[in-house]
Specification:
With 105 residues, the protein is mainly alpha-helical. The protein contains four helices and no strands.
Length: 105
């Protein structure tokens, strides 16, 4: 069997597993799940940097650099989404006026 077919099979099966796992997670667990996936994206970014750094051909270098770019965008976007979700769970924000009103009372 050709090695590329094996890797394509792994990719397709992992995509199905990922869709099934994420679709079964309740909405209250999305923030911890996003934090975990951000950590995984950091590992992917390191792997992409290693691949790009050890590239011996132009094609491998281009694929490695594209992987670095996509992993960095995905990781930064994950942190932004996690931050927005954490703000949704926070209480009402205090303004300077409400803090001074609280001191006077």
């Amino acid at each position: 069997m050709d090695e590329s077919i094996v890797w394509l099979t792994f990719f397709v099966l992992s995509a199905f597993v990922g869709v099934e796992v994420v679709s079964k997670v309740s909405s209250t667990l999305h923030t911890p799940l996003m934090s975990g996936t951000n950590a995984i994206h950091g590992i992917i970014l390191i792997g992409a940097i290693l691949v790009a750094g050890t590239a011996d051909s132009t094609g491998t270098l281009i694929v490695g650099l594209v992987a670095v770019l996509l992993a960095a965008i995905n990781m930064a976007g994950g942190f932004v989404v996690t931050d927005r979700m954490l703000e949704m769970f926070g209480g009402p924000k205090r303004t300077a006026k409400s803090e001074t009103d609280g001191d006077a009372a």
